[in-house]
Amino acid sequence: MRILVLGAGALGGYFGGRLLQAGAEVTFLVRPRRAEQLARDGLAIESPFGALHQKVETLAEARPGFDLVLLTCKAYDLDAAIAAIRPAMGPGTAVLPVLNGLSHVATLEAAFGRGAVLGGLAKIQATLAPDGTVRHLNDWRWLTFGELDGSLSPRVQALAALASQAPGVVAEAVPDIMDRMWEKLVHLGTSAIGTVLMRASTGEIARAPGGIAFMETVLARNAAIAAAEGHPVRESFLKEIGAVFADPKGGYTTSMLRDLEAGGRTEAEHILGFLLQAAQAAGVPEEIHAAALLHARAYEQRREAGRLPR
Ligand SMILES: NC(=O)C1=CN([C@@H]2O[C@H](COP(=O)(O)OP(=O)(O)OC[C@H]3O[C@@H](n4cnc5c(N)ncnc54)[C@H](OP(=O)(O)O)[C@@H]3O)[C@@H](O)[C@H]2O)C=CC1
Ligand SMILES: CC(C)(CO)C(=O)C(=O)O
Asked: Do the Cβ atoms of 88 and 279 come closer than 8 Å?
């Protein structure tokens, strides 16, 4: 399978590198700074499932000839990323976004047509270190995808078969990808609201008096939003993720907290803004969502003013 990976950040670097190890023809579409770093140092992954260090193919501009485009930008880069991959989107090319959130799916469908777009999500904790190394931070390694019409098409089955050969990846093609993406949004939305508002890991929140009850409240509200949108989450998921949030030993954080702590842009509008609007539409109490979004927006003001602490 010929795969073009837009971006070689945390997820693009990790899954692109792993698919290369599985035998796919992988090319990275990257901007100049990352292109230079990859040309000089190769792609480096550090992971509990084995390291990778190898030279990779990069492109500065997309061209036709790919079966799949793996889209791994942040939500705030979506429009530029769509323009960048457009030349690669031939009649048989599928695009698989692994961004958190949901609204990018409709944006991609408007850009490329419904048949070209897959749903997808990644449950992993990874980060791109300043030296260009992709650091995989725990044992989460799930890549889940599917057709928006629910069919288990040859292309999603082929991708699942390929990715199952990759070390450090558990890949699954599913018939209910929009339900799964909502579930992921409930998961991420809850952990992002908690970790960003408290500037702490889930274990640190759980050890603080009242922390577990706070996370339970946010989880229940996000689950109510998903149900009101017609995508109720599974009981087994609520139990599993509730236990993660209640674990006082947990060291689990979110990409949004890592971005904030690094002084970078966040996906707050795409995740927290979306959830706040959905809470309002569903009549779910909204004050915690509003406070988390306001916190992220105030941080953004401070960041833009160059007043973040060094
Ligand atoms: N990190 C994690 O643990 C998880 C992240 N996610 C989600 O996955 C998505 C990606 O996150 P993550 O991998 O952490 O983000 P990163 O910032 O690490 O990587 C995104 C990469 O996309 C590149 N990029 C953006 N626009 C373009 C473009 N037009 N052309 C070429 N490259 C481009 C950026 O390159 P440049 O360096 O040039 O800016 C950057 O390297 C987000 O939606 C996130 O919420 C989901 C689950 C877990
Ligand atoms: C849910 C979580 C925290 C891990 O997959 C995530 O998606 C993120 O950090 O962006």
From this structure: no
Question: Does the pLDDT at position 26 exceed 90?
Answer: yes
Q: Whose CA is nearest to atom 3 of ligand 2?
A: 254
Q: Give the other-Cβ count within 10 Å of 174's Cβ.
A: 19
Burial classification of residue 210, based on how many CB atoms lie within 10 Å of its CB (0-12 exposed, 13-18 middle, 19 or more buried):
exposed
Q: Which of 74, 255, 257, 272 to mutate to test the pocket of ligand 2 (most atoms within 8 A of CB)?
A: 255
CA 23 – ligand 2 centroid, Å: 27
* Residue 310 banded pLDDT, cuts 50, 70, 90: confident
Give the C-alpha separation, 12 to 169, whole Å: 13
Ligand 1 center to 288 CA (angstroms): 27
Tell me the pLDDT tens digit for each residue of 217-254. Answer: 999 999 999 999 999 999 999 999 999 999 999 989 99
Angle of helix 235-245 relative to helix 177-198, nearest 10 degrees, comes to: 20
Arithmetic mean of pLDDT, 81-90? 98
Mean pLDDT of 121-145: 97
ipTM of predicted assembly, 2 dp:
0.98
Residue with tokens 């003013």: 305
Identify the CA nearest to 180 among candidates 123, 112, 261. Answer: 123
Mention the CATH class of domain 180-304: mainly alpha
- Please check whether residue 6 is in contact with residue 69, taking contact to mean a CB–CB distance below 8 angstroms: yes
* Residue-range domain boundaries for the chain: 2-175, 180-304
CATH topology of domain 2-175: Rossmann fold (3.40.50)
pLDDT of the residue at 65: 97
